[in-house]
Amino acid sequence: MVIELGHFALTLAFAIALVQAVIPLIGAHKGWSGWMAMAEPAATAQFLLTAFSFGALTYAFVTSDFSVSLVVSNSHTLKPMLYKVTGVWGNHEGSMLLWVLILTLFGAMAAWFGGGLPPGLRARVLAVQSAISAAFFAFVLFTSNPFTRMQAIPFDGRDLNPLLQDPGLAFHPPFLYLGYVGLSICFSFAVAALIEGRVDAAWGRWVRPWTLAAWVFLTIGIALGSWWAYYELGWGGFWFWDPVENASFMPWLISAALLHSAIVVEKREALKSWTILLAIVAFGFSLIGAFITRSGIITSVHAFASDPERGMFLLLILGVFMGGALTLYAARASAMEAKGVFGTVSRESALVFNNILLAVSAFVVFVGTIWPLFAEMAFDRKLSVGAPFFNMAFTPFMVALALLLPIGSTLPWKRGRLGRSVRAMVPAMGLALAIGALAWSMQTGRSALGPVGLALGTWLISGAVVDLWLRAGRAGLADRLRRIARLPRADWGKSVAHAGVGITMIGIAGVMAWEIEDIRVAQIGDRFEVGGYGISFENVEDVQGPNYISTMATMGVWRGETRIATLTPEKRVYPVARMPTTEAALDIGFFRDVYLVIGDPQENGGWAVRSYIKPFVNWIWGGAIIMGLGGLLSLSDRRVRVAAGARREGGATPLPAE
Amino acid sequence: MLKRLCMILALAFVQTALSSAPVRALDPSELLADPVLEERARELSQGLRCLVCRNESIDDSNAELARDLRRIVRERLVSGDSDAEVLDYVVGRYGEFVLLKPPATGVNLMLYFAGPAMLGLGLLVAVFYIRARRERGTGPDERLSAEEQARLKQIMGD
Description:
The complex is a heterodimer.
Chain A: H1 2-30, H2 33-37, H3 39-62, H4 69-74, H5 81-86, H6 92-113, H7 119-143, H8 167-170, H9 172-196, H10 201-232, H11 243-268, H12 272-295, H13 301-306, H14 308-332, H15 347-379, H16 387-410, H17 418-424, H18 426-442, H19 449-471, H20 477-485, H21 489-514, E1 516-522, E2 527-530, E3 533-544, E4 549-559, E5 562-567, E6 570-574, E7 579-583, E8 585-588, E9 592-601, E10 607-615, H22 617-635, H23 638-643
Antiparallel strand pairs in A: 1-10, 2-3, 3-4, 4-5, 4-6, 6-7, 8-9, 9-10
Helix pairs in contact in A: 1-3, 1-7, 3-6, 6-7, 6-9, 7-9, 7-14, 9-10, 9-11, 9-12, 10-11, 10-22, 11-12, 11-15, 12-14, 15-16, 16-19, 18-19, 19-21, 21-22
Chain B: H1 2-8, H2 14-19, H3 35-46, H4 64-78, H5 83-94, H6 108-135, H7 146-156
Helix pairs in contact in B: 3-4, 4-5
């Protein structure tokens, strides 16, 4: 019964979405306020109905209702409760339901917090947003219905893929979708502005918080996924340049660019048409990402042919929305007259370069991702584009970005003097070079990657500190510190996020340059040395888990004669899903991880054991979290929140201070 | 099976995991005694694709085929081949699909030049744009209109 109600609620939400996509648009065009006003309650209703529908599916998973075919394929009675819940989105149908839930959530939030928007713009934004959700409702209902019942009800389910039974991955998709789908609001704003033919500073101010929020979610989502891959896949890789990873990385790069260009629109009324284009393209990349991951087309053109319905549907959605928006853009963009004037050396110019580097690097990732497909279809050449290519083609952009960032971020608006900004950065430069040189002298016979990455990261972090310092003006030390503490949160957010980029860079360069790996056969009782650490291989036993059987080793990690950790790497077998997994054991540290993996037993006794020392590896995700924190700080800035339209036209009560 | 795979395709990062059985493949017994040769073998392995996996190098893969390829690479190295000769041999047997970094020849040049060309184009447009902005020094009135003033006051005022 609940299942049918959930299905019905979803269908109802679809109908409302269709109406909401049309009526407010006509209302805005004709100036009929009643027609415009229907958008708000409709958006709320859409969200509530979808939330109910999602709740119904969750209920089916939690109660292990094996009359629902999705529950059968993805759940099991013995599965821990956490994974029963996360199993809801651990599959295609359920994750698409989560996707539309988030779409309608953003639509409803735009309605709830959009009080400060002009009524025409608000109606159009909500209508465009609703058109997107209508398209995805149709996709779910017609190609991926999660509520399909079984003909014959089995006694138990087939279990969720064991790799997904992990807290890191359980929360990776919701964050990622919040990011992907958050960009739909920016798209709606862009299209609404194109329909209105007006983009001004206020528009930039309205779009920025949404972009910021989407970007923060994407950052956290990508970091979670990368962290999960690191400890779950058993060899400590953190990024594979896999098409599905690229699918999440491209929107991240573009939304980072959008974030910065929207600032220029807000503060200086320039870069308007470019910002609109970025907002359209950012969501376009989200849709491309959905298409890539769901159609299976990148794996093989032939895999696509075997299940073309979903792929074609998504391609259609992509075509209609991108085609429509870009056509509108071509027709209207010229009307976006820029107002702001600025010199060659200025914050505006620096942000233009930021945008070029981010957008072109996203383009490089895009070309690399689709090249195998393109080459096969157009030239009948079967080839691969993998990590070695991306590392070579992508890294230079990030190096250039890192070099320019600290100087660009301290340039004044309108007109600056390069000499002055460079002079202010001399301490940061000196520190970066010193640390790079130190690293260079300490390592022998290795590539320049480590020292250069360390220097760049230091340059970014110390540059962010100098940036804050400069904002405090000329005064005594105490005065300056007090002023820094009182700087608006947006300024803090900017510096924190930029420092986060530096931290991530140090992490990536550090682990890639200085990782130590040891592969060997170890007998029980052995002790061996890896990169200054002693590893003792003490015991192997079989352990019964809730829904798996584990072969668990006990190993000690020693520094000299001090035992610093006892680690238990495992090999698990999940009998229901008939799948083995590796659970690496980590001793997590600030400067390094010790990463141990137990392999197969050897014919002549002993076990294959892999040990890794991974310097700075946690800085990768630490930096990402700090980037996200910077974004949140910025988002909590009163000026940004007010701009999100938190207050109604003429509303009497001002917001509380903090 | 395919249907199940499609369901799982939902999640980023998962495919990488799926195609590989999780235990890292390279077995202690495969390692070469000579550390220099072994280092070269590792380098080469990281650039070669496991043909039956999804976007994975033979160095990372657990598949039987990847193991065979690793063995071939090491055998060729031991018999004195240069790195280029090893790659030629493997490509000769399995086609250029096996290379994770496609050769920069023919149409692949487009792949390699796409980034630099786009960057050049972007910089060119940026230079023109910035120049135009600068020369418009006496452009339209930059001050806020009365309406914008009022709105600003409303936003900032309290």
